[in-house]
Amino acid sequence: MRKNIFIVFIGLISLSACKKDFLEQTDPNAITVDQFFTSPNDVLLAVNGVYQSLRSSNNIGESSNLYTEQRSDNTGTNDNQSNAGEPFQFGDFSILPSNTYLKNHWVSLYSTITRCNVITSNIDKVPFADANLKAQYLAETKFVRALIYFHLVRKWGDVPLVTKQLTSNNEVVENTFRQPQSVVYAQIVADLKDALNSNLPNLATGASAGRASKAAINGLLGQVYLTMATTLESGKAENLTNANTYLLSAYNLKNFNSLAAIPYADVFDVTKKTNNPEVIFEIVNLQGNITYASSIAANNQAFGETLNSRRAPTGVGGNVTPDLVLDYESGDPRKDFSIKYAADTRVLDWFITKYRDASEAATVNGYGGNNFPLMRFADIILMLAEVNMLQGNDAVAIQYLDMVRARAGVPLYAVVRNNATYSAKYPTLKLAILHERRVELAFENHRWFDLLRNFTTAELVTYFRAKLQANFGNAKLSNFSTKDRYFPIPFDEYKLDPAKMYQNPGY
Q: For the CA atoms of 377, 383, 384, 386, what is the dihedral angle to 10 degrees?
């Protein structure tokens, strides 16, 4: 049993543990952590490994929507072959603690944290001629560690918090217990503020694309404070003030004058991605490269379609719920760009077209060049609208909301709020902003977290139960209950120490 905890929290550290069998044999080719970190380049390789770990579908990469979008009301798996088994449990709100996909997600996230802890615990042993370079690597590492803990605390609530290299089984046991959310958030904020006091560039461009920047750190800090303001029991006013401060700092680092000057389709155009002024933080993919290419375009494509990719489709593609389809306003060009109805008799449903690469360079194998956005300026702008709305500054909130609506080419809020259909669906500014985030950021894995921020647990149950079952296919809305605000603690983790790794309610 203890071996399982050791794997989850140690990961790479197994290289450094002094583990002897009954013959006390040692591997003469084994490299310990102390032996590995000898030069700045070794640290760089380790930092690159941290970024690399994010790419996995079990982590937060482009194919990780099982843990976010499919948990929300945006997407699902609605073909007959998928309406069973462990993946379907996420969208059906019938997830079990023994779900192996959930366990793999937990393990992958903590493995990334382990990689980060290896760096922070060993970087001082490395001689750096350039102190700024050392500060840069440390800032990047702390940014990613904060990002992953932010995913963990929103998905599971109280979680184990480890910020140092653990080198023995006893250390692992001592550190394996759930910490209150407030403690985890405090560490996230501390890491991000440390990272902000560095020489990182304002924006990561060119060869630095896909790495941390001042804009990314400010943006994440703003989102963290906004989430704390709306989900924790105390400190709402102060957290909103901080959210506004850091989100505005991120926004002010943009290198464009108006969001409307950046066509929506250009944000996702693989031929323009190297000069994409809206991106803040993304996972970079290499077109045509079997190892580092994107598969999101090809994987989302449905039978009978060729829009996304040259690779022949093998299924119904990235399924879109009718609930989302109906949420697009009439004439919103984001709908035509992001989704399409597949008329093939094997599908007869909507699929995702937001990510496309049907170029020859992507080949018939679908080795696309799509970068996957984790943070972009439209996201920051709409969070600024959300913060100002919560602070009672509706006029300012509407200004931010209109920046996104103007770029999309839909009527501004002062006009559309007088539309009977719109005002009936979104009677409050809060719901209008939530709607705008949904259609602007669809399939970028934000929707589930937006719902958690905007609704209490009881409100969230009411929100889902009020939706029409017909718009969700086979996934049962009646399954949604208060337990579904958080994932269950994976059974293998819980059983190791049911007291310290206590299960979330309802599981």
A: 150
Instruction: Using alpha carbons, select from 453, 457, 447 the residue that is nearest to residue 91.
Output: 447
314, exposed or middle or buried, with CB in 10 Å at 0-12, 13-18, 19+?
exposed
For the entire predicted model, the pTM comes to 0.93
Q: Looking up tokens 């690779």, which residue turns up? A: 311
Length of the chain, please? 507
Residue 280: enclosing H or E segment and its boundaries?
Answer: strand 279-283
Beta-bridge mates of residue 294: 368
Alpha helices in 252-348, H assignment, sequence order: 296-300, 322-325, 333-338
Q: From 148, 130, 128, 151, select the one nearest 140 (Cα to Cα).
A: 148
Reduced to 3 states, what is the DSSP secondary structure of residue 473? coil
The position carrying tokens 């958030």 is 185
Q: Please report which confidence band the pLDDT of residue 31 belongs to, taking 50, 70 and 90 as the band edges.
A: low
CB 2 within 8 A of CB 496: yes
Strand partners of residue 339: 352
CA torsion sign for 183, 184, 186, 191 is positive
Residue 315, token pair as written in the block: 């299924």
How far apart are alpha carbons 237 and 249 in whole angstroms? 19
Neighbours of 183 (CB within 10 A): 14
Distance CA(353)–CA(336), nearest Å, equals 9
> Distance between CA 397 and CA 382 in Å, rounded?
8
The identity of residue 48, as a single letter, is: N
Task: Please report the beta strands in 297-435, taking only residues with DSSP state E, as ranges in sequence order.
Answer: 339-342, 349-352, 372-376
Q: What is the pLDDT of residues 76-111, one digit of tens each?
A: 876 555 456 899 999 999 999 999 999 999 999 999
Q: Give rounded-to-5 percent helix, strand, coil for the chain.
A: 55, 5, 40
Give the CA radius of gyration of the chain: 23
The rounded distance, in Å, linking the Cα atoms of 196 and 392 is: 29
Question: From residue 5, how far is each of 62, 173, 240, 296, 310 by CA, in Å?
Answer: 27, 8, 37, 32, 43
Over residues 344-354, the pLDDT tens digits come to 999 999 999 99
Instruction: Report the SS3 class of residue 351.
Output: strand
Token pair recorded at residue 273 = 């991605």
State the Cα torsion 226-232-236-242 to the nearest 10°: -40
